[in-house]
Amino acid sequence: MTFNEGMDIDPERVSTGGGMGPKMVLGGGGGLIVLVLALLFGVNPGDVVGNLTGGENKGQSGAVDVSVCKTNSDANRYAQCRVVLTAQSLDGVWGGQLPQQTSRRYIRPEVKLFTGAIGTGCGNATSAVGPFYCPADRTTYFDTAFFQELRDKFGASGGPLAEEYVVAHEFGHHIQNLLGDSGRAQRDPKGPESGSVRLELQADCYAGIWASYAAKTPAPGGSQPLLKPLTDKDIQDALSAAAAVGDDRIQKKATGRVNPEGWTHGSSAERQQWFLAGYRTGQVRACDTFNAADLNNPPALR
C-alpha cells in the first residue's frame, strides 16, 4: 500500500526522542504488552522489568529525524515518515468510525518515535521491547528499527502494509483503552484462550478495520484518502507480518516446540484470521474476541 500523490505530512503529529523518566509503576496493559514483545526479541524479562520500573539503564535515548517528512513521497521512502502518515490515516478512519459504530468519541493517541531508550507513563523502556502502547499516557511508541527486525528475525515478507499493520495494531490497543477493555488481559495473562490472547487478536482485528477504510476515508482536512487502494500483495504483506509474530511460530523458532499454555498473543493463523475479520467487515462488533467460542474461526468469516 502506498500513499496518494499530493499528501502532506504533519510532522507535529508525532514527537521524538525523550530521556529516561523517573521510577513509575506499570499501568494498564502496557507493561504486559512490552514484556511480551521483549520475550519475542529474546530479551531477558528481568532486564526489561528493570528498565520499565526505573532500574538501571545503560541505553541512550535518541531523537528521530522527521524533518525529512514533508510529502507522500517521503512516506513511501522513509520508515519514520510512513509511521507519521499512517497515524494521520488512522486518525481519519477512527475519527469517523469509532463514534459512528460505538457512540464513543475518538481521542487521538500520542505517537512517539525514539531510538535507544525512552521514559513512558508505564515506566522506562528500551528499543529491545519493540513497538508498544502505554495506556497510562495514551501513547504509542515506535523505534522504526523494529521493521527491519520483523523481516530479518521473524521472516515477514516486508512491504509498506506490513509496517503500517504494526502501527495500526498499536492504535488498536488505544481503541481498546478508549472502550475500557485494556485491563481485561491482566486478569488472564497467558494460555491459548487467555484474556491476553483475546486482547491481542482484537487489536489485530482493529488493524484490519483500519485497512478496510484506509483507501476510502479522506485525510483529515482534505477530500482525498491518504492511501491508494489495497492490492492482493498488500494484504499478503500484512498477513505475513501478523503470522511472523504468532506465538506458535516464535516458540517453534526459539525452542523447537510449541506450548500453547505459554501463549500471550495467539497463533499465526489466529492473528491472520482476526485481521481479515476486521478487514472484510469493517465493523467493531466483528472484533469481539472476548466472546468468541473459537479464536481460530472468527464468526465474521464463517
From TrEMBL:
Subcellular localization(s) per the UniProt record: Membrane
The protein's matches in Pfam families, at most eight in alphabetical order, are given as: Zn_peptidase
**Chief localization class?**
membrane
Alphabetically sorted, this entry's keywords are: Membrane, Transmembrane, Transmembrane helix
Chain segments annotated as transmembrane: 24-43
Please report the record's description of how this protein sits within the membrane: Single-pass membrane protein
Cellular component aspect of the GO annotation = membrane
Cite the PANTHER family for this sequence. INNER MEMBRANE PROTEIN (PTHR30168:SF0), PUTATIVE MEMBRANE PROTEIN YPFJ (PTHR30168)
* The protein, known as: Neutral zinc metallopeptidase
Species the sequence originates in: Nocardia pulmonis
